[in-house]
Amino acid sequence: MREHILAVDVGTGSARAGVFNLSGRQLARHVVPIGVYQSLPKHLEQDSEEIWAAVCTAVRAALTESGVSGETVLAIGFDATCSLVVRDGDGKPISISASGNPGLDTILWMDHRAIAETEACNAIADPVLDRFGGRLSVEMQIPKLLWLKTHRPDIWATCGQIFDLCDYLTWRATASDKRSHSALASKWGYTPEAPGAPPLDYYRKVGLSDVMERAGLPLRSEHPDRLIGTLTSASAAELGLDVHCLVAPGLIDAYAGTVGLFAAGARLEVPLSAEAVLIAGTSSCIVRLSEEPIAGPGCWGGFRDAAVPGLWLTEAGQSASGAFLDHIVKLHPAGGTPMKARHRAILDAISEHLAEEGSDFGLPITVLPDLHGTRSPLSDPLLTGTIAGLDLDLSPVSLHKLYWRSCVALACSIRHIIEHQPLGAGAPKRLLLAGGLADHPLLSQLYADATGCDVHVPKDCDAVLLGCALHAAVAAGAFPSVEEAGKAMQFAMAHFPPSPLRQAALVRDHALLKAMMRHRDELAELASAPAPSPAAIHRAI
To answer: What are the φ and ψ backbone dihedral angles of 247, each rounded to 5 degrees?
Structure first.
């Protein structure tokens, strides 16, 4: 009678748990916030014990809300951001924070402390780099590990287990040392087909010859449709489940969303090359699935079996999207706290402005949204953003103008990234959209108009949680394949076709974005030029 699946999604600022039946119906969903701490500029940290406690609270609350008994849960799946959890040989947390806070053992995915180490890794020629568009990202684990060994050798000497966050969660649930192919292939450099092998030669070249021991890494990654194990008695008690509950391999959060949208989203069938997934949350990930590997500058991949078994995955995206909009709200005097309800209220107000004033609303404000560097089409964590056209107005309307022009810039940037994807990926005609920026129809329509794609958005379904649940159901044997699970757990999608009229208006905004990029390059060149000598200044006067 085990007919339910639990899914847990750990994002940047919260842990979410959902209870599903095997027909894909979400019976309950509960969200618990988690903290992000900044000890130094570019140092962003979390507490894995706090994360696990939030997971347990979210799961127990979702079970209570659903009325489902823990004894009826067949399996649990975990997905998470690609943050790095550092533990000693006994599994106890090791602080990686300059603050000295003993609980801060997790380097957040968007932490940029390892910029110098990233450049050092990218200066070493190796086939591993070809799988990451020619350059590792500062968001990946190899540069973070090198930073830890270089700057904190005292910590490195005591490390015994270092996890991608999704693997930490399955380890915490089962005590198993197995690690998921989803994380190891896409963030640790393991070979792209499951079961993947570690890049030992590259680890040696960059100075991480002892990383297998220090991180407790396996010689093979775990295939996505193979179980990690069952819950321990301790974790079962904490989660409100029992020791017979099966645990699926972890997934990178955007890849869980890809599984949900690709496998279970109701839509007409098209070739893989005509479709892309966009998970737009704190950051934005554009994911393509293909029968053959696709690689190129500004893309991560391809990785086979990282999301859907048997298919290759290629990823591109923005380093900050929802995080950028949060930043705008926090900076503006009329902004307030950037919670979901606040964002929705701002977008509701913008909808009214657009109805009254048309597509020129917000001009002459122009935005380059790369406040946290870029992933694609150029991987550069040092790039910065720009806002032009501001005045002294501090009213709510000025916030709405700035917020809307920021949204337009983010959407135009997505089109720019898609246009620069490898030719083998094909030009997508359809965009499957999920994440926080899919919560308002105004943004769904904006992405359709900016990209020229038909946008499909889940109706009353958390696609990331559903994807995680679907993945767990397949690993647990409830379905023979992701395809069959998708048919059984299918959900409805809302359709937003691009508007030719609004597309014409956005031509100007695409041109503005490219002009801002050129001006950024020109300003950077001027800023890097040697300062004139006092004699030269005197002659100029």
So the answer is: -120, 125
Give, for 317, the enclosing helix (H) or strand (E).
strand 312-318
For residue 123, give the 3-state DSSP assignment: coil
272 DSSP 8-state letter: G
d(CA 225, CA 457): 26
pLDDT in tens, 209-253: 999 999 999 999 999 889 999 999 999 999 999 999 999 999 999
Cis peptide before 422 (omega within 30 of 0): no
CA neighbor of 131 nearest in space, from 205, 184, 185: 185
Give the DSSP H/E element, type plus range, for residue 60.
helix 48-66
Is pTM beyond 0.85 here? yes
Angle, in degrees to the nearest 10, between helices 396-419 and 340-357: 90
Output the CA angle 36-40-44, nearest 5 degrees.
Answer: 30
∠ CA 339-496-420 to the nearest 5 degrees? 85
Angle, helix 165-174 to helix 48-66, in steps of 10 degrees: 70
Q: Rounded to a whole number, what is the distance in angstroms from the first to the last CA of the chain?
A: 87
Contacts 24+ apart (CB under 8 A), 13-17: 13/282, 14/54, 15/51, 15/54, 15/55, 15/57, 15/58, 16/58, 16/462, 16/465, 17/55, 17/58, 17/59, 17/61, 17/62, 17/465
Q: Pull the structure tokens for residue 435.
A: 């994440």
How do residues 95-135 score in pLDDT, each as one tens digit?
999 999 999 999 999 999 999 999 999 999 999 999 999 99
Residue pair 492/266 in contact (Cβ under 8 Å)? The answer is yes
Q: Is the dihedral of CA 332, 335, 336, 337 positive or negative?
A: negative
Spatial contact of 238 and 56, defined as CB atoms under 8 Å apart: yes
Q: What one-letter code names the amino acid at 19?
A: V
Q: Quickly state the pLDDT bin for 537 (edges 50, 70, 90).
A: low
Please answer whether residues 508 and 457 qualify as being in contact, where contact means their C-beta atoms are separated by less than 8 angstroms.
no
Mean pLDDT of 509-534: 91
- Which DSSP helix (H) or strand (E) runs through 65? helix 48-66
Written as one letter, the residue type at 103 is: G
Residues whose CB is less than 8 angstroms from the CB of residue 212 and which lie 6 or more positions away in sequence, other chains included: 198, 200, 203
- The two beta strands, 73-80 and 251-252, are parallel
Mean pLDDT of 7-21: 97
Q: Are 394 and 332 in contact (CB under 8 A)?
A: yes
530's tokens: 């040697």
